[in-house]
Specification:
Elements: H1 5-28, H2 34-40, H3 66-69, H4 86-90, H5 93-98
Organism: Artemisia annua (Sweet wormwood)
GO molecular function: zinc ion binding
Protein name: Zinc-finger domain of monoamine-oxidase A repressor R1
């Protein structure tokens, strides 16, 4: 089982490119290795992963539509009021028409 000549050519080209890149980095003064750069920086602390909480769905009642149960919706009473801001009342045209 021999190696293919194409693979040898590829490896030779790759090694030549790596050595050229190392020479270029050395000429620029960037000869530090990755391990040296990583030792200079502070490591980023990763937050701990949340533990997956499994819900026992058999104990939770199923949600069903009131429409399908044919239950009438509760009427919205008059007790619910909407708030208007004072700015709305201050700039209302009815107030300025009355002169107040």
């Amino acid at each position: 089982m021999g190696r293919f000549p194409a693979k040898i050519d590829y490896e030779n080209i790759r090694n030549a490119r790596i050595s050229e890149n190392q020479a270029r980095l050395a000429s620029l003064g960037l000869h530090k290795t990755i391990s040296e750069l990583r030792s200079i920086t502070t490591p980023v602390k990763t937050p701990p992963k949340r533990k997956l909480v499994k819900v026992d769905w058999s104990s939770v009642p199923l949600r069903r539509s009131n429409r399908l149960k044919q239950i009438e919706p509760k009427p919205v009473g008059e007790s619910v009021t909407t708030r208007r801001s004072l700015r709305y009342f201050a700039n209302s045209p009815a107030k300025s028409a009355n002169g107040k």
